[in-house]
Design a protein that fits this description.
mainly beta, 13 strands, eight-stranded mixed β-sheet, globular
């Protein structure tokens, strides 16, 4: 089992730097779109998967699992070798991020979030995207009312392999640990988790970005979906202010 603590290290930083150097500004915007998804406990759309979790850290096995998936789109892809991904944890009331949700090396709940890329027990409907030994890791950054998880995993270039489009691949598990629930406040707050963005790398010179999907959101302590509905309404109502040049000073 590959468990990654949320602390930056040479493997993570080196992998991100290597990808930035090897992969230039080549884009795959003209290819048929794929999708990304997230759900509790099972791959999105499978029996047993849930969008909302009523968090009960004093019950159960000591952790809950968010499952991330990716459909590359198109028909077939050669030489898959790496990914970059971003997941956000929002306070649904737009208040300051509670102590329990402050993960990572600079947070109070340092071991509260683990990243794992092992396949699920049943891969018939959701095969693992990882067929070779992958290296990499995560990093978690905190802002006022949300936390940002970023991770990268990659295989050696001579171990790249093909993928099929139209297949929902299992790409990662996010384990929410219960250990700190008795010592840190805020585990019972409503939260929204968004699978924001995924980038797949095919060979050394091509990548494609994904930010679409019907199942990109999961929630905690939002049984009616009201917090998620309000969150999406606020996002739709926010429009960027049109840029205007500053008037020139006289003289």
């Amino acid at each position: 089992m590959r468990l990654r603590l949320l602390r930056p290290g040479p493997s993570t930083a080196g992998g991100l730097l290597l990808l930035a150097i090897l992969v230039g500004p080549v884009r795959g915007a003209d290819l048929p779109p794929g999708s990304i998804g997230i759900a509790w406990h099972r791959c999105p759309g499978e029996p047993g998967a849930a969008q909302n979790l009523q968090f009960a850290p004093r019950e159960g096995p000591g952790q809950d699992t968010l499952v991330l998936t990716w459909d590359p789109g198109g028909s077939a892809w050669d030489d898959y070798l790496a990914c970059l991904a971003t997941v956000h944890f929002y306070d649904a009331r737009e208040e300051s991020l509670a102590p329990f949700w402050r993960f990572g090396s600079r947070g109070l709940n340092k071991r509260g979030l683990l990243v794992n890329i092992d396949p699920p027990p049943d891969t018939s409907a959701c095969p693992s995207v990882w067929r070779a030994s992958a290296d990499g890791g995560p990093q978690y950054d905190m802002f006022h009312n949300f936390g940002r998880l970023r991770f990268t995993f990659y295989v050696a270039s001579n171990q790249a392999y093909p993928l099929d489009g139209g297949v929902s691949y299992h790409v990662a598990n996010l384990f929410i640990r219960h250990d700190a629930a008795d010592s840190l406040q805020g585990w019972d707050r409503p939260m929204i988790v968004e699978f924001v963005w995924w980038k797949g790398y095919f060979g050394l010179y091509f990548h494609k970005e994904y930010a679409q999907g019907e199942r990109r959101f999961a929630t905690l302590n939002d049984p009616t979906g009201e917090y998620l509905r309000r969150f999406l309404e606020r996002r739709r109502s926010r429009t960027a202010k049109t840029w205007e040049p500053r008037p020139r000073r006289p003289g």
